[in-house]
Inverse folding.
């Protein structure tokens, strides 16, 4: 369970790496799944925090709050949140090598909150492969 | 094989759940793959049908029929369909727990048709994990 | 390791198929992962090269070089490249049947370079399943 601070990127790389370590993983693949429709998973640059600011801006331009949305019962930020989650997805995998996530040098794993307010988000992590 | 009614969202959660039940799955992961380039797979809200209407509108704004497309030989809806399929993807996974799909409360699995006319679309389902 | 020619689509289907053949794969699934944040993976039409031209145009419209980006230190093409990579993703799978990729008739696997200049990009391929 991950607590978000409202709209924006939460780096979950450390939590995910801890899961791999605790499960005694050796060689294989980690599958990550998010059980929500207004938050999503993104692997992106972890060096300059401006990148995350700009990624959030880009998503706002692609799915503006004042878009032609019919579904408005849950507030003006709800339907744009669904669009953003659709475009970025809730299911991905990362290779595991030698008991560690085989991320690229600049890659971090992010849970992206698309609603304005903070939420609790449920993540499912599954390792397939050999033990260390 | 899934029959679509032309542009829009087809809920395939029931078909997918039936596959998991029939395959005697216990704990593991279901991999879903769509063998097409102008339709795609999306996990999104299953409660209010307006959400699917708005998601389709959002995709039309992102890839309009009158965009600057060179590829027009298959009709004005073809190239936008490829763009929409690229943005949403044809490959995803869902965790399986206790012999059932571990979807979130509001998550449904959708095959999204991006062409105007109805099509037959081929889905590939694979379970990796232990038997029940 | 894949060499790209700068912005655009590189067909990697042949390299991926060779990996499946050399690994003696039978039935299962191939997982593909790209270790970068300004390039991504897309499964799309392999027949008419105009489709790839138009897909690149579509991405430029969605993430223009002159967008409201704060992160500019790596050049005007860098932040749009991150946005495009976020929208298309770095993680996907393809089913393997009878020792071959079970792609649809018109599907090719593409490494999409979003930076202007050529780059060397690192791909990770993993097969899960039975031997032939």
């Amino acid at each position: 369970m991950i607590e978000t601070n409202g709209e924006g990127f939460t780096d979950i790389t450390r939590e995910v790496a801890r899961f791999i370590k605790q499960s005694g993983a050796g060689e294989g693949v980690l599958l990550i799944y998010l059980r929500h429709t207004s938050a999503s998973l993104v692997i992106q640059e972890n060096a300059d925090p401006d990148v995350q600011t700009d990624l959030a801006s880009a998503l706002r331009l692609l799915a503006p709050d004042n878009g032609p949305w019919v579904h408005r019962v849950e507030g003006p930020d709800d339907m744009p949140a669904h669009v953003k989650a659709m475009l970025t997805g809730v299911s991905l995998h990362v290779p595991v090598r030698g008991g560690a996530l085989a991320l690229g040098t600049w890659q971090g794993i992010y849970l992206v909150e698309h609603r304005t307010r903070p939420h609790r988000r449920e993540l499912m992590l599954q390792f397939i492969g050999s033990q260390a």
Observations:
- The interface with chain A takes residues 28-29, 42-45, 48, 50-51, 53-55, 57-58, 61-62, 87-89, 92-95, 102-107, 128 of chain B (CB under 8 Å).
- Helices of chain B lie at 13-22, 49-62, 78-88.
- Chain B has a mean pLDDT of 97.
